[in-house]
Queue: 2 jobs
Job 1
Amino acid sequence: MSTHAVPVEKYHGTGNDFLVVDAGEGVGDRSAFARAYCDRETGISAETVDGAGREGDATGDASSGRRGADGVLFLEIGERYRPTRVVMTLVQPDGSTAAMCGNGARVVARWAHDRTGDHEFMIDTQAGTRRATVSPDGSEATIEMGTPRFDPASVPVDRDEPLVEEETEGLVVTAVDTGVPHAVSFFEGGRGDPDGIDSVDLDAVAPPVRHADVFPQGANVNLAAVVDAGGGDERGRDGDGHETPAVIDQRTFERGVEGETRSCGTGAVAIVAVARRLGLIDGDTAVTRPPGGELRITVPDDDHATLTGPVAREFSGRVAADPR
Ligand SMILES: N[C@H](CCC[C@H](N)C(=O)O)C(=O)O
C-alpha cells in the first residue's frame, strides 16, 4: 500500500470537470483513486486538498464549489516530440476507463499549454491520436475528433444494420461512435419549452437505453432539440455571407459517471453528426448548448469533426495516492 501524496490539478471544460494527475506519480490503483476523489459527496474540493492554491481562472468557472469530478485524467507528457504529445487515460467515477473524452481532451490541451506555453499538441487516446490547439489566451481549446461512424461494428451495436431512429427501451435513438458509443434522441422542444428536453427525467429514462442489449459496451445517452437549423443557404447566411451555425440544446447521461453531466464533448459531436444524417440542420457547423456552456462543432462530409469550447483551471493541491 502506498501512502505518498500526489499533486492533483482540477480543470473543467463547460462544467465537465476533471482531476489531472501526472501518470508518473505512481498511483497504484487508479480505479480506487477515481472512485474516491470523484465522489460528489465526499470527493475532492479546493477545501479538502492539502496546500490548495486557488490559482484558477477568475471567469467562466461553471463547476466551482462542486466536490468531486466527472473523471481523473492520468497524463504522460512527451516534450521531445514536435508538437508535444500527451498520452491521455480517463478513469471514470465508477472506476472504468473510457477510450475517448472530448471535453477531457480539451482539458488535456489546456493543461499541456499551462506546462509548456505551446498552443498545439498531439493527444494519444485509446480511440486514436487527436490534434489539439489552444487559443492565444489559453481560454479555449479545439480538438480534432475523427469521423463519426454509424456502422454497427464501430459503435458497437449488436445487429447488422445501423441503428437509426429506432425505438429502444422507450426512446427513439440513433447510435453513433465518436470515440465512445452514443445514443442520440431528438425532441421537439428545447430548453425553456415546458414540454422540451428539460421536462424529461433523464436519470429515469437513460439507464434502460444505456444498458440495452443492442449496446454490448453500453452507451452514453443524449437528448437534443434543434433550436435553429442554421445553414449555408441565402436564409442561413449572416450579413457577411458566412454560414450561420445551427443551435442545438443538449443533455447527456454518461456511461461511467452513471448520471447527467454538465457537458459532454463526444456527445456534442454525436448530436451534430446525427442531426446532419437525419437532415435536421442545414450546414455542417453547430453550437450545442449543454447545461454547462456552449460548444462549437463542425462535422464536414469529407473531413474529421472538430470540437471547440472554453476550458478553465480551478485549483491544485496534493492528495494521498491511496485514498483508503
Ligand atoms: N465527457 C466525455 C465523454 C466521456 C465518455 C464516457 N462517459 C464513456 O463513454 O464511458 C466527453 O466530453 O466526451
Note: The chain has two domains: 5-145+311-320, 166-302.
Job 2
Amino acid sequence: MSTTLFDKVWDSHVVRSIPEGPDVLFIDRHLVHEVTSPVAFLGLKNRNIQVLHPERTFATADHNTPTRNQHLPVQDPLSAKQLQALEENAAAHGIPYWGLGHEKNGIVHVIGPENGITVPGATIVCGDSHTSTHGAFGAIAFGIGTSEVEMVLATQCIMQPKPKRMRITIDGSLNNAVTPKDVALYIISRLTTSGATGYFVEYAGEVFRNMSMEGRMTVCNLSIEMGARGGMIAPDEKTFEYVKGREFAPKGEAWDEAMTYWKTLKSDPDAIFDKEIHFQGSDIEPMITYGTNPGMGVGISQHIPEASTVQGGASTYHKSLDYMDFKEGDSMLGKQVDFVFLGSCTNGRIEDFRTFARIVKGRRKADHVTAWLVPGSHKVEQAIQEEGILDILTEAGFELREPGCSACLAMNDDKIPAGKYAVSTSNRNFEGRQGPGARTLLASPLVAAAAAVTGKVTDPRTLLELETA
Ligand SMILES: CC(C)[C@H](C(=O)O)[C@@H](O)C(=O)O
Ligand code: SF4
C-alpha cells in the first residue's frame, strides 16, 4: 500500500480512533519546561494522580533562566518560583530534571536530540510550539497546550485530529552562504505564515538529504512559523549515525530491532499528499526579515517589497513597517544593527557556532554592536570550548553566555531595548518579542556574524569572498 512517512508513524501510535473525531495517540516522549508545566502538575495534584510514565518524561529549565551567573540564586522572583516548582514537581513524580548548572541542561529542543531522547518513528510532545524541531529525525513531534500536558502526564496519550499531509520538495543544490535557516525563511516567505495551516509537512529532495542533522532541525523548527502542525524528514544514515551511542538511544539488540523499523520510515514512491510544493535550491539566497512576522523575509540583496505586491492588507503591512521604521523599497543592505543574538532552539547548536566563527575569525566585533552569543545547551557550550571556537570568539571581542532561550523571547534579563535593531538567529520577530519596542531581523548565523563585525546588514558572501580571494 502507498503510505506517507507521516501516516506510518501516526497510524502505529493510534490507541483508539473516535469516529468523525480525533485519534487517541500514544506518546513515546514527553518534554517538559518550567513555563507550561506548573498548572498541569497542579491539576494532577488536585486529582491525586501520579505521572504514568516518568521514564518517558524529561524536564529542563530554559525559558526564563539567566544567561549569566547561573551558579547564583535566580534574582527574578517569578522565574525563581517557576524553576523551583518544576524541580519539586519532577522530584515528586520521579521525572529526570536537568535544572540550572546540570550538565544536560539546555533548551528543551536542543537537549532532546543531544541525549538520544529524540529518535526516528517516535511521537514526541512538549508544551511548546517549536517541538516541531524533533521532526528532523523522522519523528512526529508537535507542541501542545497546558491542559494537554496534564493529559499526557496522566495517561501518556493525547487526543488529536489527524492533520492533512503536505510535501515540500527542494531539488538541486544551495548557493554559497545559503544555510538551512535561509531555506526555511525562504519557504515561509513564499508560503506566508498561514500557508501550511492544518498540515503536517514532509520535507523532501536533495537539499534536505544533503543537510546535516543540525540543519534539518533548524528547518523543522521553523515549520510552525508557516502554520504547520509540524514538519518531518525521513531518517537516513546520517540520522542513525547521529542517534547511535547517545545516552537514551536504544542499545545492543534493542538498537538492531529499532534499526529494522527505522529503515522502513519513508514515504512510499506512490504515496499521495494532500498538497505538494516544489522549489529549486539555486533560487535561494541568504535571507533576512524586514517586518513583524517570519514570512516577511527577502533575499539580503533585495529591497523591501511594495505593499501592492504582498499578500494581506496594506494597512497591516504599513503598521508592521512603521514598527520597524522601514519604508517600502528600502534596501536591506546597509541598515544599522545595534544587537546581534546567536542562539535559540533554531540556531543555538554547535554547527551554528562553527558557522558564526567562520566569519568572525580574524575580524573584530563592531564597537557599537552588543552581541549575545548563547549556546543552546551545556553540551554545545562545552563543544564550543573544546573545538577552539571560544578562542576565535574571544579574540574577535565576543563573549559567550550560559545556555537558555535568552533573547529569543526575552523572558529573562536579555531584552533588546525599545527602538533598537537586532539581527537574531531565532524564529520569531513579532512586535515586542525580544523586549518591548525591540525590532528584530531574523537571519542565519552567517548573516548575524556579518552584521556583528560590520555593524550593519551585510551580505555574508562579500566577507567570505574576501577570505578566499
Ligand atoms: C513559552 C512557550 C509556551 C513558547 C512556545 O510555545 O513556543 C515559547 O517557547 C516561544 O517560543 O514562544
Ligand atoms: S529558544 Fe525560543 S523558540 Fe525555542 S523554546 Fe525557547 S523561547 Fe521558544
Note: The domain at 5-275 is CATH 3.30.499.10 (Aconitase; domain 3).
